[in-house]
Amino acid sequence: MANQKKLFERRQRRVRYRIGQLAGGRPRLSIYRSGRHIYAQVVDDASMVTIAAASSGEAAKSGAAKTWNVDAAGAVGKLIAKRAIEKGVRQVVFDRGGYLYHGRVKALAEAAREGGLEF
What are phi and psi of 113, to 5 degrees? Predict the structure, then answer.
């Protein structure tokens, strides 16, 4: 288990370094997940302000049956895209936070792209 944590932290450092190189003043779409929920935030690192946020708990209230599957992650992606566009943010940098781009993370990213966010 300790080896998995080290690998996760290594991926996380690598992703953060690349985001710092590519950001160019864009806000960051940061995701994190737990066993039950997936969360997304659009963060402006320059002014240290959260512009928009969404979670699978909120998406479940709007119709998703479960909060931990790929469908719930897609609902979160659509919700965060809608809220970010309402605030005037269309271009973001995707921060997967060390998680592999697969499953729920991929579903959230694709739904956010379909919702109108560009990254």
Answer: -65, -45
